[in-house]
Amino acid sequence: MRCRSALTRIDALRTGELQPAERGALKDHLRTCRSCDDSFAHVDHLARAVRSLALAPPRAWRMEGRFMDSFDRVGSGDSVAWVAFSGRGIRMIHPGGSEDEFRERYARRYGRMLVKATVPDALRDQVSAALKGAASSKPTLDLGRATELERDVLRMLTRIPRGEVRTYSWIARQIGRPRAVRAVANVVARNFVPFVVPCHRIVPETGGIGQYAFGQESKRELLRREGVDLETLDALAHRHVRFIGSRTTRIVCSPTCRAARRIREENCVPLRGAKEALAKGFRPCRLCQPFAA
Fold first, then answer.
1. Does pTM surpass 0.90?
2. Exactly one of 36, 199, 257, 288 is catalytic; which is it?
3. Which of 34, 59, 86, 109 is deepest in the core (most CB within 10 A)?
4. In the CATH hierarchy, which fold is given to the domain comprising 241-293?
5. CA–CA distance, 227 with 271 (Å, rounded to integer)
């Protein structure tokens, strides 16, 4: 596919209107053409900006129900969040703030009103477990208004195991768009269903735990509850170590991979990057895929 044909189909790809064969050809082109890939990211950003201008329906429409979704407050103590939901699943989560602030935030994204209701037990359990850093079932989400890129990124975030972390570039590679790291980072930063979709498990390429929309200390606490060894991550970042190799198996992992945690201390080989690992004869772990081609 040529650039001219690709550019005329970008918006249709974003809205999911392309046929499978055409969608596959366009995605193949975006993987190899940085200019068109950037254009796709710009169109996605513009679409989000336009949606943010949507006005909440007039107050007189509330009783009709067609322009309303439900919300509830979930959790207790320090682990509390507002949760908006529909019959298909969770639509938005936000910790703290007032009820009016949450309503306004929801109206800006969806252009719909919220009415107080009791969240279903299954959704409540998912949110409560996520807030506590406990293991939970796969989240039930309503991503009907999300772009294709948002859906791909959010779904990939849910595949990061509890107690492990990954990078923005890892997400970009896994969804088949290795050049779209910046666009991926924007989606992660604007995650509208945090906790159940664990954007707190994303860390910078350079090491450490990085920033978080709800504060770095909140991120550290969530990771700590999940069993991440933050002191080791901080120490590795200070030494610019990104991967851990095994002297016996010649396999290299991300530091938090469950396979890496089984390597005996005397067999651990600190590695600063993929090139160093490959040059020394290591192969990437199949579990965490630290630098998949």
1. no
2. 199
3. 109
4. DNA Methylphosphotriester Repair Domain (3.40.10)
5. 23
